[in-house]
Amino acid sequence: MYICKSMEIQVRNVSKYFKGIECISEVTFTGYAGEIVGVLAPVGSGKTLLLDLLRGKVVPDSGSVTYLDDNKPIKGRHLKQYIGYLDATNALYEYMTVYDYLYFLTSLYKLPHYLRKERVRNLIKICGLSSRKHKEISTLSKGSRQRVGIAQALIHNPPFLLLDEPVSGLDPSQSQQLYELIKEQGKERTVILTSSRMRDVENMCDTMLVLSNGKVLAKGTVGELQEEVANSSILKLRIGGADSLAAYNALQQLDYIQVISNKELSFEIHTTKEERFSKDLFSLCAEKGWYIVRLVAAEKSLEDIFKQLRRN
């Protein structure tokens, strides 16, 4: 399969119902070649169903999913040749070695015989599996199995790559290595990946969709999502000389703030009225005989933005 910079996927007002319940609601976005799109949502919010709609496993009740090659729609049975897919379970033939498994897949995708060994060798190198290529898949670590899963999705060199929770369950080191692999593949392909952990994709995706209960709450770059909630502040507060429960209850009386966390007199405060809160906090501490150890504004992470969008 060749890869062309004019390839893209257009998703327009896609909805899906099951037993009268709307599970996906009017999702719209475009994914371009050389772009990584992140679908960010908690567990059970429709991420996997959306990928099933994108790859044609499930048919939408309304709306459309269109893959374009040089502005011409890709249709019919040939479409699957354009899509590489890694599901969340990453089911592999565990009794096979890495090399044998990938070589087996080249026959399923009907790659020309003269290209098969070269393709497998290249993918093993690209995915960092050289030292494991003759090991049975059942003996591999979670991180190495995910690398095999990505290799199988790339075996036919597809221009569109759909990855369902690709770094779920990995330790930070394994996650970082997989980030780099995915980012490299995203330089020329259209990559759409899902995650329920915002930190997994915050520094990897070009565009993000925040999904909750099948609906898109927001979409854009990290910067654009930050602007969307720019009028609110996240404050880190630590109070001294107080009982933790008493301080928490006193703060809860301020109806224009949200106390998100309370750990041993350390609080995370969300508010759209930072100046008013500062004045009221000083008055409260003076009245109660408490003192402020620390009060600073925190930079909003994608996780913070996601939580705030859901609350809104």
Q: What is the strand and helix layout of this fold?
A:
Elements: E1 8-18, E2 21-32, E3 35-40, H1 47-54, E4 62-69, E5 72-73, E6 83-86, H2 98-108, H3 113-126, H4 142-154, E7 160-164, H5 172-185, E8 190-195, E9 207-212, E10 215-220, H6 222-228, E11 233-240, H7 244-252, E12 257-263, E13 266-271, H8 274-288, E14 291-297, H9 302-311
Parallel strand pairs: 3-8, 3-9, 6-7, 7-8
Antiparallel strand pairs: 1-2, 1-4, 4-5, 9-10, 11-13, 11-14, 12-13
Helix pairs in contact: 2-3
Describe the protein.
It is a single chain. It contains nine helices and 14 strands. By secondary structure, it is of the alpha/beta class. The protein has two domains: 8-227, Rossmann fold (3-Layer(aba) Sandwich); 231-311, Alpha-Beta Plaits, CATH 3.30.70.250. The strands form three sheets. The protein has a six-stranded mixed β-sheet, with helices on both faces. Strands 2-1-4-5 form a four-stranded antiparallel β-sheet, with helices on one face. Helix 2 crosses helix 3. It is elongated. It starts with 7 loop residues before the first strand and ends with a helix.
- Using the 3D structure, state the CATH architecture of the largest domain: 3-Layer(aba) Sandwich
Radius of gyration from CA coordinates: 24 Å
* CATH topology (level 3) name of the largest domain: Rossmann fold
CATH superfamily of the largest domain: P-loop containing nucleotide triphosphate hydrolases
Structure annotation, total helices: 9
Low-confidence parts: none
Based on secondary structure, the structural category is alpha/beta
How many beta-strand segments? 14
Helix content: 25-40%
What's the end-to-end separation, in Å? 44 Å
Proportion in β-strands: 25-35%
Tally of discrete structural domains: 2
Mean pLDDT: 87
Question: How are the strands ordered across the major sheet?
Answer: 6-7-8-3-9-10
Q: What order do the SSEs take from the amino end to the carboxyl end, as H and E?
A: EEEHEEEHHHEHEEEHEHEEHEH
